[in-house]
Amino acid sequence: MIKKFISALLLATAVFSASAYTTETVQVPTTRLESPLDVTVIVPDAAADGKRFPTVYILNGFSGNHTSWMITQPRLGELADQYGMVMVMPDGRDSWYWDSPIDPKMQMESCFVGDLMPYIDNNYPTLPEAKYRAITGLSMGGHGGLWLGTRHPDLFGSMGSTSGGVNIIPFPKNWKMAQRLGAYEDNKDRWAQYTVVSLVPQMKANGQNIIFDCGVDDFFADVNNDLHRRLVEAQVPHDYISRPGAHTHEYWANSILYQLLFFNQAFQNAKQ
């Protein structure tokens, strides 16, 4: 009797596992970086029924990689199933998601739009239209979400950031940015061009769905508050949340729940 019960339990577990979301790690070929790009991809359970889904690109912060978000918020797979989303998490390689003007082996933006996104749409059950794509991330990845989203409105209908470094100029000595852009003292105009707050006029013109947030105790709180102020002055519709919290995994694990809800609503609106 005990053996039959255990066998039944194992069978039930196998059936449950087979019907859940799938998580894969892939390497995307590219000549724009030193080596292929490591990417974690979550595919909803319903893909087995031949359905296609909106896609959310979720970017890691400085010193993180393609596995970081799954550690920060282990429920991402469940949420992919719940909302019906393909989730894509590439290794940001401390790139700030720019094409470096001084390092030809760190062309992350071009890799993202020229290699990664076509690979995802060719190999996974996505809906390859801007209105069914969103991009967000934390810290460096928050900068990346708004940087890439704003610069490519033909690819992303929605974009976000959590605890994002949305203005890099107050931090000229931090997080390898000088290795990507050159020293601030010698390249002030370039730094001004490569920071998210410089993109407010484009955000106004694009008409995308925008959400971003930052904890009140975060060292990026001031630059996020300033971006919010600029968007309000420019009359750019957006959701901005300032809640208790600091630059922590606990904050990001909570924040992504609200952002995925926001993106899901945008995707549902796009279907109407």
Describe this structure in words.
- With 272 residues, the protein is α/β, with parallel strands linked by helices.
- The protein has 10 helices and 8 strands.
- The chain has helices at 2-18, 68-72, 76-83, 108-123, 140-151, 177-181, 188-193, 200-206, 221-233, 249-271, and strands spanning 22-28, 37-43, 55-59, 86-90, 133-137, 158-162, 209-215, 239-243.
- Strands 1-2-4-3-5-6-7-8 form an 8-stranded mixed sheet, with helices on both faces.
- The longest helix is centred in the last third of the chain and has 23 residues, at 249-271.
- The termini are far apart.
- Mean pLDDT is 93; it is low at 1-19.
Fold blueprint:
Elements: H1 2-18, E1 22-28, E2 37-43, E3 55-59, H2 68-72, H3 76-83, E4 86-90, H4 108-123, E5 133-137, H5 140-151, E6 158-162, H6 177-181, H7 188-193, H8 200-206, E7 209-215, H9 221-233, E8 239-243, H10 249-271
Parallel strand pairs: 3-4, 3-5, 5-6, 6-7, 7-8
Antiparallel strand pairs: 1-2, 2-4
